[in-house]
């Protein structure tokens, strides 16, 4: 009864009721697109345009920004917004008498900046997951081989995201985390389980010498979430093939053999030189001893003659 009286009064003074079906059609990192339908027709009311008001509750004093449109325009793109921020939007219709009743507020979170991982090993990547806003409850870590064609993260339905399967080329959920553990330095590919209440997610080790891209999906609720953009492609470390290792060992053996071929003759030469030197020294000492013996005998004879012996 009260609603009917309100409509009758607004119609009487020439104001419009609230626009219908206010909803978001698309979003980006810094933009949201909102659409609506004209309010139910009221007697003696001619629409002249619409007013779109949007704001965030994160500021101490919310700032209301307003856009005016013509009566024929039933959508508006809100630009220059903050990434990873929840915005509220209302729409009201205008007549010659002024702006009528506002629609109920609808909300949407803008998408986030990409979070780029870094290489740490043959089978893992490091990802620094930031702490989100207080209304975020959970986060998914989604991975895909960079060689595959990727869909915009915003356009991937949550229901299409699955746990890892062998030889999987589609994006897959490698971990499901609670927001209260964030911020976190997360190791993609550590082989552990990071499960939700409904599903098991194995953080599958990555393939060596392969490129991967990553995005995060933050959840306020099952129906309210936002995604970061895909990261840049990051490659795991290259492991030397067995053939290369064998070749390196073979080359090393050849080098060692070459060095031995040079060292052995030098050692033989040194031994021969020392042996020759030893022979020469021995011969010289032998000659000296032979020379001293006659002198010694002659000296003894002279002493005997002197003492009459």
Automatic annotation (TrEMBL):
The record's section on InterPro entries has:
FN3_dom, FN3_sf, Ig-like_fold, R-tyr_protein_phosphatases
Q: What Pfam families has UniProt attached to this entry?
A: fn3
Per UniProt, the keywords (alphabetical) are: Disulfide bond, Repeat
**Keyword Aminoacyl-tRNA synthetase on entry:** no
Keyword Signal recorded: no
SMART domains given in the database record: FN3
**The organism sits in which domain of life?**
Eukaryota
Q: What is this protein called?
A: Tenascin-like isoform X4
């Amino acid at each position: 009864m009260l609603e009917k009286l309100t409509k009758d009064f607004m119609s009487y003074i020439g104001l419009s009721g609230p626009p219908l079906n206010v909803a978001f059609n698309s979003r980006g990192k810094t933009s949201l697109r909102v659409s609506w339908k004209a309010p139910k027709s009221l007697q003696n009311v001619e629409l002249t345009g619409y007013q779109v008001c949007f704001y965030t509750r994160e500021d101490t004093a919310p700032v209301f920004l307003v856009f005016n449109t013509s009566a024929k325009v039933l959508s508006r793109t809100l630009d220059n917004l903050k990434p990873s921020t929840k915005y509220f939007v209302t729409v009201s219709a205008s007549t010659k008498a002024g702006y009528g009743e506002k629609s109920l507020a609808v909300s949407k979170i803008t998408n986030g900046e990409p979070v780029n991982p870094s290489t740490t090993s043959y089978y893992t990547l490091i990802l620094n997951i930031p702490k989100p806003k207080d209304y975020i409850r959970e986060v998914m870590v989604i991975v895909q081989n960079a060689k595959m064609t990727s869909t915009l993260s915003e356009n991937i339905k949550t229901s299409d995201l699955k746990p890892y399967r062998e030889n999987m080329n589609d994006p897959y959920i490698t971990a499901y985390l609670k927001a209260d553990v964030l911020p976190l330095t997360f190791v993609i590919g550590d082989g552990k389980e990071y499960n939700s209440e409904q599903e098991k997610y194995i953080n599958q080790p990555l393939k060596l010498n392969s490129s991967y891209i990553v995005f995060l999906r933050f959840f306020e609720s099952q129906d309210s979430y936002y995604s970061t953009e895909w990261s840049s492609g990051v490659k795991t470390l290259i492991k030397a093939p067995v053939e290369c290792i064998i070749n390196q060992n073979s080359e090393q053996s050849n080098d060692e053999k070459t060095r031995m071929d040079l060292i052995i003759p030098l050692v033989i030469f040194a031994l021969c030189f020392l042996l020759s030197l030893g022979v020469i020294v021995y011969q010289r000492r032998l000659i000296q001893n032979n020379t001293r013996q006659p002198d010694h005998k002659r000296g003894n004879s002279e002493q005997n003659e002197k003492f009459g012996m």
